[in-house]
Automatic annotation (TrEMBL):
<feature type="domain" description="Response regulatory">
    <location>
        <begin position="6"/>
        <end position="130"/>
    </location>
</feature>
<keyword id="KW-0597">Phosphoprotein</keyword>
<dbReference type="Pfam" id="PF00072">
    <property type="entry name" value="Response_reg"/>
</dbReference>
<dbReference type="InterPro" id="IPR052893">
    <property type="entry name" value="TCS_response_regulator"/>
</dbReference>
<feature type="modified residue" description="4-aspartylphosphate">
    <location>
        <position position="63"/>
    </location>
</feature>
<dbReference type="InterPro" id="IPR001789">
    <property type="entry name" value="Sig_transdc_resp-reg_receiver"/>
</dbReference>
<dbReference type="InterPro" id="IPR011006">
    <property type="entry name" value="CheY-like_superfamily"/>
</dbReference>
<protein>
    <submittedName>
        <fullName>Response regulator</fullName>
    </submittedName>
</protein>
Length: 130
């Protein structure tokens, strides 16, 4: 399994973000990570990185239910931005709604749909898939 260089967490829940970062460190999942607290903050930050030709994340862990701009709105906007760097997107949410699961499948850039909480085993599976 290869290690991810840069992971991005887009989630408004500080407890989930804290836990996910700790689990990523414990699992030796990635070298570093960036965090955005809603989709709008993530779009603005990632657009700036793309324009500056700086290092983009290899993987995004995306929550669906967030204020200001939710995960679906983020996906709709982010998938329209051309990038040379392939970014793997995983939806990580508490939603077990079949409509959300099916909707996620309609996005080519979404690799998988994971239900919270995230685990070391879940992170290892992500590493195997990437």
């Amino acid at each position: 399994m290869k290690k991810i260089d840069l992971a991005c967490i887009i989630d408004d829940d500080p407890i989930f973000v804290f836990g996910a970062k700790k689990i990523m460190q414990f699992a030796d999942f990635c070298n570093s990570f960036m965090v955005y607290h809603n989709g709008e903050e993530a779009i603005n930050g990632l657009k700036s990185i793309i324009l500056a030709k700086e290092k983009l994340p290899d993987i995004i862990l995306l929550d669906l239910n967030m204020p200001i701009m939710d995960g679906w709105q983020f996906l709709d906007e982010f998938t329209q931005i051309p990038t040379e760097h392939e970014i793997t997107i995983y939806i990580v949410t508490s939603s077990i709604d079949p409509e959300d699961i099916n909707r996620a499948k309609s996005y080519n850039r979404v690799t998988n749909y994971l239900v919270k909480p995230i685990s070391i085993e879940g992170l290892r599976k992500i590493l195997e898939e990437s």
